[in-house]
Design goal:
Layout lengths: L3 E4 L2 E4 L4 E7 L8 E7 L6 E7 L3 E4 L7 E6 L4 E6 L8 E8 L7 E2 L3 E6 L1
């Protein structure tokens, strides 16, 4: 199993940037998929991005070109660099890990991102 801890959320103005971190309790080299979801107040949880086998990254259309997902295998940490933030990016962002395809996911506790207009 793996434990995940997010950090890096906060309050930023429209157009600003934040970098979220998701620190894992073990090596991430063998983790199949790492990713991010977000949930805004009153809305369903939305998948944001993931990285598969440390190299294939995918994004929801609304963040393409603005967000970048990456990993640091030495620090066992995944990052979500968020640029050109918009008020509609306001949400609680949670990271997850799928150790192997089809297995139950591990989740972090979530970190709040608020973008003011």
């Amino acid at each position: 199993q793996v434990q995940l801890v997010e950090s890096g959320g906060g309050l930023v103005q429209t157009g600003g940037s934040l970098r979220l971190s998701c620190a894992a309790s073990r090596s991430i080299l063998s983790i199949n998929t790492l990713g991010w979801y977000r949930q805004a107040p009153g809305k369903q949880r939305e998948w944001v991005a993931d990285i598969i086998s440390g190299s294939i990254d995918r994004y929801v259309d609304s963040v393409k070109g603005r967000f970048t997902i990456s990993t640091d295998n030495v620090k066992n940490t995944m990052y979500l660099q968020m640029n050109s933030l918009k008020p509609e990016d306001t949400a609680v962002y949670s990271c997850y890990a799928e150790l192997r395809v089809g297995e139950a996911w591990a989740w972090g506790q979530g970190t709040q991102v608020t973008v003011s207009s």
